[in-house]
Automatic annotation (TrEMBL):
GO terms for molecular function: NAD+ binding; oxidoreductase activity, acting on the CH-OH group of donors, NAD or NADP as acceptor. Residues 213-309 form the 3-hydroxyacyl-CoA dehydrogenase C-terminal domain. This is Putative 3-hydroxybutyryl-CoA dehydrogenase. The record marks 167 as: Important for catalytic activity. InterPro entries: 3-OHacyl-CoA_DH (IPR022694), 3-OHacyl-CoA_DH_CS (IPR006180), 3-OHacyl-CoA_DH_NAD-bd (IPR006176), 3HC_DH_C (IPR006108), 6-PGluconate_DH-like_C_sf (IPR008927), 6PGD_dom2 (IPR013328), NAD(P)-bd_dom_sf (IPR036291). Residues 10-209 form the 3-hydroxyacyl-CoA dehydrogenase NAD binding domain. It comes from the Eukaryota. Transmembrane segments: none annotated. It comes from Meira miltonrushii.
Amino acid sequence: MSIKHGIKTLAVVGASGQMGNGIAYVAATKAQIPRILICDQSDAQLDKGLAFFDKLLAKDVSKGKLTQDDADRARASLTKAPGGAASLAEIHQDGPPDMVIEAATENLNIKQSIFKTLASTLPLSTILATNTSSISVSKIAASAVPENAKAGSPEAWQSPARTLGLHFFNPVPVMKLVELIPALQTSKDVTDRARAFAEACGKTITVSADTPGFVSNRLLIPFINEAVMALESGVATKEDIDTTLKLGMNHPMGPLQLADFIGLDTCYYIGEVLLRETGDSKYRPSVLLGRMVDAGWLGKKSGKGFYDYN
Ligand code: CAA
């Protein structure tokens, strides 16, 4: 028997960033979730995100991928979360969402604070998902405990069980994968419903244990790092490294171009997580990658990385 996700209201935290915006987009257009609350740090950021959302809808309508009616319905499903900007504690005001997907900055303290607030205000029936690409999902789940729950109480045990990792890939509307990462605490029912939701978003699901970098970044980040080290040691030019992988292995982007696309700070950060949490020196981020981050050369988002984007 196929499991139903049962999500009628979805909230996306960090909805104006590339990932959050893309998640809201596939939830609205593919899964056709009737009500999607978008939440971010400022109204101005949310408006910027909505403008990008509108641009994507218009592009998909013009290419015949969506009917105008479906685009209008998708757009109408989006609402700013009640209370305006940064209003996590008020997200439940007009009825609690069935699921929240957090796609905020990749920072443990920020995520822990978000999950504590969500767990303190939303009923146990709300699934809490994180789009983290490298932080321990079990650690995030452990913070999803209501503020006033006593240690060892049923609430303190039950709340982390509705938390899991749903790792989307950039650009979300294009990339076909979602990596599903149950925390140690996650219940089977929550895992099954989250899988059904991600499938409704048009994605193929792979499951990874909650280990550093999961499957995707455990393989991708050392690959990118090796390409940077090849450049650093003069094996080939950046263009030849990228062209070798693009034309020799049919990758859509070479590793250095992909590093620019992901963000060099993100690549460096995930490399550090892999190194710290495994203790294995094979994950040590290259010196050149670190220096480029020091210089503020973060790739596409800063206008300069291995390539120039101005
Ligand atoms: N949002 C939505 N759609 C986008 C987009 C965005 N930000 N960027 C591009 N697209 C769409 C375009 O609109 C276009 O759609 P249509 O086919 O409907 O026209 C389609 O993608 C192709 O775009 P382009 O023709 O402009 O460019 P392209 O053919 O060179 O493809 C690409 C661009 C899809 C990004 C492709 O280069 C690619 O697949 N690159 C690899 C991306 C990748 O590996 N992503 C994963 C990164 S790792 C990660 O996200 C997770 C992590 O934890 C680090």
